[in-house]
Amino acid sequence: MQADTVYAYAVGRIRVNEKKLLDKTRLDRMLDAKTADDAVKVLAEAGFGFTDKEASDALAYEKLLDEELTGLFSLIKEIAPDPAVFDIFLLNNDYHNLKVLLKSEFSGINNDNILVEAGTIPVDKLKLLYKERRLSEIPEIMRNAVEECLDVYNRTKDPQMIDVIMDKAAYKHMVQNAKQYNIAFIEDLLKIMIDLANIKTWFRIKKTTKTADFASKVIIDGGSISPDFYISNLSEPAENFIHQLQKTKYAKVADRGRISFTDMEKSADDFIMSYVKSNKLKPLGIEPIVGYIIARLTDIKNARIIMVGKINNLANDIIRERLRETYV
Amino acid sequence: MYKIGVIGDKDSILGFKALGMSVFPVATPEEGSKILHQISQDNYAVIYITEQIAQGMIESIEKYKESRLPAIIPIPGNQGSLGIGIKGVKKSVERAVGADILFDN
User: A267: domain CATH number?
Assistant: First the structure.
């Protein structure tokens, strides 16, 4: 494990950037904006995106948010002593991109517009490697997953299997990556992310009455709760599952599962936020940097919720109850 | 095989994609007219257009009124109904059977 002081410079830069986060005041201003165009101005002010700030109108907000996502990770790359540590936050975008490429090929429909720039492998390179089948040049877990997708899809023609295989591989890759650097804070965070993903998945497969066999394919290994717990509880009523989770730190998230998926997802995001927040004040160390990444990702999510709400004229209280807890 | 198209604001129409329809998100009636013109040549039997967009491009829609395909049908967007779609159905029924048999007025 490295000494915490290697992050001193990075933490300094992060503290400055924290001032630009969407705090409650900024979110309120967005909510109170009369039009979506006015709301998007708050984003430009908070440093979102990097091109054409003057011309940004409401409908261009998606571009602004995409740019911000790319910008966030180029900042991290610039200031972190060992940027690869933060790859765990980028890997899911690589896997998203591969899903897009696989599905585009199988369906014959070009979907390049939904590729995400912020991955560990630049989109253009990934596209080329995939197209020319130079899969030996991508990391092993990723390569195996792509090969499995090609094989399984050609046999079953079931596009859902692409999601199942890729999602599982993404987490496996993240766990492997985190192990390599051996930083307890990140490993714990990843465990929480996996637990929460599994809890959300459990409620979904329960509701869609999928089989235990399907569950064993989608429940992810590597969390603090073993996959068996989810699979064996599938034949029991949801109340039992919620009851058993009361003994864990996820009691509140599970409770929300009773109400609705929307509530549960918010509660799961808030759980992660409160975890990183509790480590925010560490003067040095990796915690404030990870905290900032989660904070800015949450900003992007909140901004999207407000913009979609504003463009579609939703009432403020409906938008507000969906907003995630903020870092500052 | 004939296809079904949907034109409207993105958030209103994206869900139709899951049903296998082709969706064409547009922001203005002008864009809508352009898309409609393009896809009307392209084997679409039915084209749904959200009323919010349709009300600004009545002229373009009228052009297809007498042709057999595509059938252009205004649908309510996520902002609620403007009554354009229903009015159209009423008119078509009156034309076909000679009387308003769907609504009592």
Answer: 1.20.1690
